[in-house]
């Protein structure tokens, strides 16, 4: 009787959470780091055949295969066939997990509790994506979860890239039954610090390596953005998108206004800006919807984050040799990096990115894939 009731309780508990054990996970070697450290690649496949491959180097989403309107699968993220490509210093964060601080910190420094912290200058005079050896350039420790998720852990030492505090970051990737890639980020620290984690996948819904994303139709749930200076650092202003080429509140082709004579577009060489989401409250809120009409592929993004960096691959130049020999020219992909605003540690008016001992940084971003026939 006692045994029966504990089974019943266990079933009730299982009923209360979403279990995705239908996801199959396999593991393979992906290559070795110059110091001999073995890098692994995990393949997650859900019950509908959605397949994501994730590398322990940089937590990178190496490939993501989804069906088009005829059921034909294609890999819709840019990347490389082997670890070697990811080790190229010119590699622009393909699929990578970004930390400790996504996007830029102006003049490579910030002040916290009255103390100035100096960071590496790896983007002109500024710090980009956590410094010269950010979370995209380290090997994470994997753990397969019973529900079919892949958990990656990295412990960044106190002072790593100039940031204070030992930061323990734990990131989990899951494919859900609803054809979503769900990424959960958590972090804890032993000293007051700042943190802003994201994923830097380069999407092309026609299939990576099949032309530009200028014809992709984008909706961004953002009625304001943060204009930038010539170093792409926010000026501090929150500018309404209405009446500007930054208005994607209604579905609009990405290329429709990208060449307009607009100062902000010129500074970004296209779109490379932080959009302030209209979401309210906590929990997941809508970020973006991207549709590509020839394949019918649709991607919807939801996040707990307050903002998203919309980047149109303006620094891509076709020189890197990607998967299957594909090259990735100018504007061959788009990034939607859910995040807190760039340079927040230097802008007290922006939502805070501070994390204190005893607190847990916790964010979630979901990419949902479907087709429109
Ligand atoms: C982000 C930045 C861009 C660029 C890319 C990587 O999206 O905002 O300016 O640095 O990363 O190339």
Strand arrangement within the widest β-sheet reads 11-12-13-14-27-23-22-17-20
Low-confidence runs: 1-20
- Overall strand count: 27
Structural class: mainly beta
* Fraction of residues in β-strands: 35-45%
Mean pLDDT over the residues: 95
Q: Helicity range of the residues?
A: under 10%
Q: What ligand molecules are bound, each kind once?
A: alpha-D-galactopyranose
- The best one-word shape is globular
Please report the distance between the alpha carbons of the first and last residues. 53 Å
Largest sheet: 9 strands, antiparallel
| Number of discrete helical segments | 3
- The succession of helices and strands, N to C, reads HEEEEEHEEEEEEEEEEEEEEEHEEEEEEE
User: Any idea what the radius of gyration is?
Assistant: 20 Å
């Amino acid at each position: 009787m006692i045994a029966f009731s504990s089974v019943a309780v266990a079933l009730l508990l299982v009923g209360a959470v979403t279990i995705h054990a239908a996801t199959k996970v396999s593991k393979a070697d992906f290559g070795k780091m110059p110091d001999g450290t073995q890098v692994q690649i995990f393949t997650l496949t859900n019950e509908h055949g959605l397949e994501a491959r994730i590398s322990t180097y940089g937590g990178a989403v190496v490939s993501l295969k989804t069906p088009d309107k005829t059921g034909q699968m294609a890999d819709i993220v840019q990347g490389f066939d082997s670890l070697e490509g990811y080790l190229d210093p010119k590699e622009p964060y393909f699929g990578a997990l970004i930390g400790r601080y996504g996007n830029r910190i102006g003049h490579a420094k910030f002040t916290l509790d009255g103390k100035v912290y100096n960071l590496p200058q790896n983007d002109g005079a500024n710090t980009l994506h956590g410094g010269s050896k950010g979370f995209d350039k380290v090997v994470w420790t994997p753990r397969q979860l019973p529900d079919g998720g892949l958990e990656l852990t990295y412990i960044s030492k106190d002072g790593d890239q100039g940031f204070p505090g030992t930061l323990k970051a734990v990131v989990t990737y899951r494919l859900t039954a609803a054809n979503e890639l769900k990424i959960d980020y958590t972090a804890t620290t032993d000293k007051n610090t700042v943190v802003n984690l994201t994923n830097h996948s380069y999407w092309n819904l026609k299939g990576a390596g099949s032309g530009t994303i200028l014809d992709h139709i984008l909706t961004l749930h953002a009625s304001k953005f943060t204009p930038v200076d010539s170093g792409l650092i926010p000026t501090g202003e929150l500018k309404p998108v209405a009446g500007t080429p930054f208005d994607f509140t209604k579905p609009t082709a990405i290329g429709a206004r990208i060449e307009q004579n607009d100062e902000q577009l010129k500074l970004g060489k296209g779109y490379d800006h932080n959009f302030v989401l209209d979401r309210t409250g906590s929990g997941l809120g809508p970020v973006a919807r991207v549709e590509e009409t020839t394949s019918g592929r649709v991607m919807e993004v939801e996040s707990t984050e307050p903002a998203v960096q919309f980047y149109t691959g303006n620094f891509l130049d076709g020189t890197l040799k990607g998967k299957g020999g594909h090259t990735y020219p100018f504007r061959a992909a788009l990034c939607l990096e859910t995040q807190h605003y760039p340079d927040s540690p230097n802008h007290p008016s922006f939502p805070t990115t501070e994390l204190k001992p005893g607190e847990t940084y916790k964010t979630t971003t979901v990419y949902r894939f479907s087709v429109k026939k």
